[in-house]
Design goal:
This protein is mainly beta. It contains four helices and 34 strands. Helix content is 4%, strand content 45%. The strands form ten sheets. Strands 5-4-3-32 form a four-stranded antiparallel β-sheet, with no helix packed on it. Strand 12 and strand 13 form a beta hairpin.
């Protein structure tokens, strides 16, 4: 495993350097991303699952104009098909924000798009087709930027298609650098089930958190069949792991039953805590240091009625750490929790935003909220409940006001999944101290 070293890096993360915060960028991005949007985002990229017989039937990167006042505001301005259908899922920018990496959970392909040259018209510049063959992992899921590197969290493995997996680290040029298995059965750090899902880094503490989901056999199964399969339902992750980031070594495993998914660190200065939501048990969990300085995970809130399995699928934390959006797939609701006291979150708002909803992204200033609909091809609802859209809202602190909607089925695009913001080159902030020291991989 590679060691870390401290190097001067002009492209260090503005969030962590005491610089003026960006005004629009997503709060879920890696803190090592240097180019943070100033003001209004101009474009929204949506990684979209192809549907057989709809349009060209292929997975594609769809770009939507989201700049108010633009002649094409709220419209699709570009669509780039990558060929085939492989369960398009998540994306992530490189640290220089010039490339967008996107993965497919079924055929394990990774597509690298140039979004820096012309974000209105991304270009496919690289396809990594040997992820499973070279790593032994299956289902490239989370793409998380390090300086000059990209961490790719797998969901499964090539041996038995179960949940045991790991993290692969690539150079920004697409070269495999190192592999890091998820902790499994390591009694000295609390065990571990070997499962993986999301990654979130706190550089100031030299910490990384990872969460857990399920393997290929489950996530490629029809949801109705899966729910009725008692044995399969036992094969979901129940842990989170706390890692030493520089050493890329797990330090502690927390028991977090119910498949903890997205992880969000509070971005407010001095607030050293993170939150996650569990899909199957519908809970919010807090990861925070106790009075003795030891990191602990504990349940702090309930999302909806767990008996009805609302299925929390995505969360988005506000830039000041005082609020959290939570989307629940089964009831189609978007909820807002007051996180002023992270030990006691309080739900203050909920609204049905679709018959099914999945991802939620908000601008840095918290005024704009975007929602997409698709979870997984075989988990999405059937018939009239199978809505596929991107919806844009304005949030005034009291209500979500609809701005526009793109019907992905009507446009013959497919199933709308993950989102990322872009802006015209002149709208990016790159001013950071050249002497800043940050942790970087050799």
């Amino acid at each position: 495993m590679p060691a870390f070293r401290l190097i001067p890096l002009a492209a260090a993360a503005a969030l962590l350097l005491g610089l003026p915060p960006a005004q629009a960028d997503e709060t879920c991005n890696s803190p090592y991303m240097a180019r943070l949007i100033k003001g209004q985002e101009h474009y929204l990229h949506v990684w979209t699952l192809g549907v057989q017989g709809m349009g060209d039937g292929s997975d594609k990167l769809v770009t939507i104009d989201v700049a108010p006042g633009s002649k094409t505001y709220g419209q699709v301005i570009h669509s780039l098909s990558v060929g085939g259908r492989g369960e398009a899922h998540h994306m992530g920018f490189t640290d220089d924000r010039k490339q967008l990496w996107a993965g497919r959970l079924d055929d394990n392909k990774i597509f690298v798009f140039d979004v820096g040259s012309n974000p209105a018209r991304p270009k496919l510049v690289r396809t990594i087709g040997d992820f499973a063959a070279k790593t032994g992992f299956v289902g490239p899921h989370t793409f998380y930027a390090l300086p000059g590197r990209m961490m790719v969290q797998g969901l499964s493995n090539a041996k038995d298609h179960g949940g045991a997996t790991g993290i692969a680290v690539y150079s920004n040029q697409g070269k495999l650098v190192s592999l890091h298995p998820m902790p499994k059965g390591q009694a000295e750090i609390g065990g571990g089930d070997g499962y993986g899902y999301d990654i979130a880094v706190h550089p100031e503490k030299n910490l990384m958190l990872s969460s857990s989901f399920t393997g290929w056999t489950n996530y490629m199964m029809d949801m109705g069949t899966l729910i009725q399969d008692a044995a399969a339902m036992k094969n979901f992750g129940t842990t989170m792991a706390l890692w030493d980031l520089k050493a890329m070594q797990p330090r502690r495993v927390f028991e977090v039953p119910g498949a903890p998914l997205e992880i969000r660190w509070s971005l407010a200065s001095g607030q050293n805590w993170a939150v996650t939501a569990t899909a199957l048990t519908s809970k919010l969990w807090l990861v925070k240091q106790d009075g003795q300085g030891e990191w602990q995970a504990k349940e702090v809130a309930t999302i909806g009625d767990p008996a009805k399995i609302p299925l929390p699928v995505d969360i988005s934390i506000t830039a000041d750490g005082k609020g959290l959006w939570v989307n629940t797939f089964m009831d189609g609701k978007t909820r807002y929790f007051d996180m002023t006291d992270p030990e006691q979150p309080k739900q203050t708002f909920e609204q049905v935003t679709g018959k099914q909803v999945n991802m939620v992204s908000q601008s840095w200033d918290g005024k704009r909220v975007y929602i997409t609909s698709s979870l997984l091809a075989n988990w999405d609802k059937k018939g009239a409940d199978d809505e596929q859209f991107l919806k844009a809202y304005t949030w005034d602190g009291q209500a979500l006001k609809p701005d526009f909607m793109v019907d992905f089925y009507k446009a013959k695009l497919g199933r709308a999944h993950h989102m990322k913001f872009s802006a015209k080159a002149a709208s990016y902030s790159t001013a950071v101290p050249a002497t800043t020291q940050v942790a970087a991989l050799r």
